[in-house]
Amino acid sequence: MKAYSLGIDSRTNGEWRAILIKDENDKKHITDKLDRNEIIEASVINMFLTNIVTDENLRKEKPFETDIIYWMNDLLLDAVTAQNGIIISSRLKSFLQKFKIGDHKFYDVHITNSADRDNTALYHLFQPRTEINDITNFSKSEFTFLDKSTRQTLKIEIGSFKDYSDFSKAEQSCYDKENIVLKITTRCLRKDLDVIYGFANNLVVNEKLRTKIEESDFAGIKVKLYKDYEIVLD
User: Fold this and answer.
1) What is the dihedral of CA 175, 227, 83, 112, to 10 degrees?
2) For all residues of the chain together, what is the average pLDDT?
3) Could you read off the pLDDT of 47-69 as tens digits, one per residue?
4) What pTM did the predictor assign?
5) Helix, strand, coil abundance in the chain, percent, nearest 5
6) Strands 16-21 and 68-71: what pairing?
7) How far is CA 50 from each of CA 57, 73, 138, 201, 233, rounded to the nearest angstrom?
8) Quick one: which of 69, 175, 48 has its CA closest to 115?
């Protein structure tokens, strides 16, 4: 089946960015929890909205008009991001809840415009928690062995590993000892989900959800074909 990456349309939603100040992160352990796929013990997460276009006369976008806000890492602002999580509007949250989105958590995010502290909005941090490797049937997935230097395909195998632990050990051994890159090129899933998994500022979704998104009037969202590997159902 075809899978799609759902994320931010940088052509229409490129100026305004959400930032998580390190002090807020340290208090609530937000990025550590997300990176370990653990639940954040916080009733609300506080973030700031900043515009990356420094000249106000050149700004084209208005704050809080999009259904996804890009979560930005910025060392100068002492701001940090996580490897997983996407900041979405209440409208997009309600939409996603109508689909099969697996194990997940939503957290209220109170965002304050850094240039106008009276200008605030409520968004939500969506944390997909279904581990993609836990629902992968490795005995039916396809694996490609590539030369580390040339990236030429050396061989393709199906069902070479029994689980993720088995695959991970082989992946590391191939890279360290044989100069081979081992990749999953077709991932066979045991579970049929509309939101397959997530990573920073993106969701990987199926054809059904992609079609419904494109039929709706959400702002600032871009859907494109997911090309990291093919996804099939067991």
Assistant:
1) 160
2) 95
3) 999 999 989 889 899 999 999 99
4) 0.92
5) 20, 40, 40
6) parallel
7) 15, 12, 43, 16, 41
8) 48
**In contact, 125 and 178? CB cutoff 8 Å:** no
From the list 130, 83, 90, the residue with the least C-alpha distance to 109 is 90
Tokens of 6: 């759902």
| Contact (Cβ atoms closer than 8 angstroms) between residue 99 and residue 19 | no
Going edge to edge, which strands form the sheet with 230-233?
A: 153-158, 142-147, 180-189, 230-233
Torsion angle of the four alpha carbons 202, 206, 212, 213, in this order, in degrees rounded to the nearest 10: 10
Query: At 170, phi and psi to the nearest 5?
Result: -65, -40
Residue 188 is predicted with a pLDDT of 98
Which long-range contacts does 51-54 make (Cβ < 8 Å, 24+ apart)? 51/15, 51/16, 51/17, 51/115, 52/14, 52/15, 52/17, 53/15
Helix (H, G, I), strand (E, B) or coil at 211: helix
Q: Residue 203 and residue 157: Cα distance in Å, rounded? A: 28
Rounded to 5 degrees, φ, ψ at 190 are -80, -20
Tell me if residue 172 falls in helix, strand or coil: helix
Q: Which residues contact 55 (CB under 8 A, 6 or more apart)?
A: none
Residue 52: how many other CB atoms lie within 10 Å: 12
Helix, coil or strand: residue 96? helix
Say which range, 68-77, 111-120, 222-231, has the weakest mean pLDDT: 68-77
CB 129 within 8 A of CB 102: yes
Do the Cβ atoms of 187 and 3 come closer than 8 Å?
no
